Amino acid sequence: MSATALFADVERMLKVCAPGATVRLATHSRVIQYKDKTYRSLPKFDRIELGHIRKMSRVLEILECAKRQIPGL
Amino acid sequence: MSEMTHHPLLFTLRDAVSGKGFLAGITLSGRALMVQEDGKWWTYGVRPGAIAESGSTPQESFARFRNRYKEVLFDIADESRTFAAFKREVERFANEVDKEEERSWNDALQLVRASSGPPPEPFSQLDRMKAEEAPPKVTVEKLSAAKRKFTPKDNLKDTVAKAA
Known about the structure:
The complex is a heterodimer.
Chain A lengths: L3 E3 H11 L4 E4 L4 E5 L2 E6 L4 E3 H10 L3 H7 L4
Antiparallel strand pairs in A: 1-5, 2-3, 3-4
Helix pairs in contact in A: 2-3
Chain B lengths: L5 E14 L2 E16 L2 E8 L4 E4 L2 H22 L3 H13 L3 H16 L12 E3 L7 E6 L16 E5 L1
Parallel strand pairs in B: 5-7
Antiparallel strand pairs in B: 1-2, 1-7, 2-3, 2-6, 3-4
């Protein structure tokens, strides 16, 4: 089992680091939109592996801020 | 960055996806970086950049990456009212770059090229392919077009290779 964070913590992080970002549920994944970026492959689980959060944060260009919000990222 | 833990991959995937009133064929030649993090193998998309998956082995990680990519295509099909909208969103997704990942991929490629020995298992079992011979590319075709002819030559197996 690799390191994870609760999706609720990801939502809190997005409010701080990507204000105005939207999260919606597609059939297979969560879709996060922020500014002109779309991340459409975040798993729909309650706990998300940090690698997914790291990847999403890089794509949304908020990684440094996200690291301050989610321990271990 | 260690040569032993960062592996630049090239892959080609072909899918047929049903949408609202159309059948689409998608062929993606892409790039990914495989690394060990948090005790697992991670396949991080470079092109497309907005996708990642993990596994307990490199093979499992890539298989799950491949499946997640397919799920992205299915989600886009769900949300697209027309073939044109589907094609536009698949192309946008496939061409979205993670610039930091791309830098890491290029650094890993330079280490592969500077190394005199073979890559570690299981990467040594992969074909080696010059990165310049496999540029990132996506094509989205409407297979359900009236005059479209289908032949077995259209079939293409999944391939994954170590970038060299």
